Amino acid sequence: MAYPAAVFAKIKSEKQREELTTLWKQHVNHYTRIRGHAILLSDDNYSIQQIVDIFGVDRDTVRS
């Protein structure tokens, strides 16, 4: 079975990056912080597999 693209998110503006960084560092919900961090890592060219390894979750979790 073929895997989809290695990178799943691209940040389109500096404002969006700043908002995601704030979300990652300050949001009260732990899972929301993880999601923000995962998007930032993806935009920094981390592959889905690398993000899976960092957070210890399933590949499908990262893709969704």
Tell me what you see in this structure.
The protein has 64 residues and is mostly helical. Helix 1 (14-26) runs antiparallel to helix 2. The protein is 62% helix and 0% strand. The model has no long low-confidence stretch (mean pLDDT 88). It is built from four helices and no strands. The chain has one domain (14-63). It has helices spanning 14-26, 30-43, 48-55, 59-63. It is globular.
Low-confidence stretches: none
User: Whole-number average pLDDT?
Assistant: 88
Number of helices: 4
Oligomer: single chain
Question: What is the N-to-C succession of helices and strands?
Answer: HHHH
Terminal residue distance: 18 Å
Helix content: 55-70%
Number of structural units classed as domains: 1
Please identify the structural class as seen in this structure: mainly alpha
Q: What is the makeup of the main sheet? A: none
Task: Tell me the Rg in angstroms.
Answer: 12 Å
